[in-house]
């Protein structure tokens, strides 16, 4: 069995290594030159692959952009090809039974994602008015930021662990507005806060906004 599965495993690893290289290369080129001015051929040349390899793997440049976004959000510890609901950070947050720790884990995740995605978000915002693909993907990112808390915090609402009178929808709206890469950017990159200080403050804000006051 090992003699037949080993070559397949090696091919799978090589395929994933190639996808990682393509997506990392595309992320850099998209951020530096913009979506419209980065061709599939330019990505292929910089990544050391044939353009046809990219088309076979992703189909379109828009799909490559989506894959780049997924990899940046997931980081290198999670496989972005796995459905988001199965990623390690989502599973960890969902499994946490303590409401306060659950919120802390969520804020920590956004802190970790922010440095990886801000350049891509900036590029998308600059490109979106003239590029429908970029506009669609930017809208998907924003929708995802709202849907994430909806799934992750639903157990809090089901168990009556949210602040009295606060609906799940309102909790998601508050989280969407407060805990974002833009908020971290404003505090850390604009106002000079440390990442730890920003994370602590945002965690406190979210805890006070969503959970009952501690006795």
Keywords:
single chain, 215 residues, Tetracycline Repressor, domain 2, 11 helices, 0% strand, elongated
Number of helices: 11
Structural class: mainly alpha
- Any idea what the radius of gyration is? 20 Å
Question: Which class of the largest domain in CATH terms?
Answer: Mainly Alpha
For the record, give the distance between the C-alpha atoms at the N and C termini, rounded to a whole number: 60 Å
Beta-sheet strand percentage?
Answer: under 5%
User: The CATH topology of the largest domain is what?
Assistant: Tetracycline Repressor, domain 2
Describe the structure.
- The chain is an all-alpha fold and 215 residues long.
- The protein has two domains: 1-82, Tetracycline Repressor, domain 2 (Orthogonal Bundle), CATH 1.10.357.10; 83-215, Tetracycline Repressor, domain 2 (Orthogonal Bundle), CATH 1.10.357.
- It contains eleven helices and no strands.
- It has helices at residues 2-33, 40-47, 51-58, 61-74, 88-95, 99-127, 132-152, 154-158, 168-178, 181-190, 195-210.
